[in-house]
Amino acid sequence: MTLKECKKEEKADREFQKKFKFEGSITVLTQMMVDPAATEKRGGGKNLPLRRGEILEVIQFTNREQILCRNSQRRYGYVPRAVMLHL
């Protein structure tokens, strides 16, 4: 990874921590997959856009309805638990 890419990732992580009021280091708890039968949704606000079959990294289990996740493009957002499957 180049220095430029590393700084870009660090900046994205700082923005995530500010937007979601997340304290501490960002650690991946597990990986989960978006249900292939789920409808695709556009992201908006603090919600992550969903694509069928996409593998997401779980950052935090926030409540019974939502999970805080990161996708392969290093974008962060909330995802409904109802559309997530364990790998």
Automatic annotation (TrEMBL):
Matches recorded under SUPFAM superfamilies: SH3-domain
Helically-extended SH3 domain segment(s): 16-85
GO cellular component entries: plasma membrane
GO biological process, one term: protein localization to plasma membrane
Domain of life: Eukaryota
Alphabetical list of InterPro entries matching this protein: FYB1/2-like (IPR043443), hSH3 (IPR029294), SH3-like_dom_sf (IPR036028)
Keyword field: Phosphoprotein
Pfam families reported in the protein's UniProt record: hSH3 (PF14603)
Name of the protein this chain belongs to: PML-RARA-regulated adapter molecule 1
Annotated source species: Mesitornis unicolor (brown roatelo)
